[in-house]
Design brief:
Length: 105
Amino acid sequence: MINAVFTVSRGYVLGFEISGHSDFSEQGSDIVCSAVSSAAYMTANTITEVQHLNAEITVNDGFMKLNLSQQDAKTAEVILNGFLLHLNALKEEYKEFIKVKISEV
């Protein structure tokens, strides 16, 4: 199962942590993992390469973590909220393969 945790403070998404594999189908043809991974990389790349914000990013097999300062989170608000919305839509379609949680700090 893919677990996504979004860290929220003062109404802003400060970052996210995604871990696990969906096991929807075999590696290489798993559309659920592909959808989540593609959206996560697009979000991270937009924040760092388009918006030029400082993000702490960690990536390993089946894992991505991104953290922003409160100020940078305000600037990245639209992309992060879009990513959260996208993962919630995927969760509704693939309930048994994705969990999305909000962690208030």
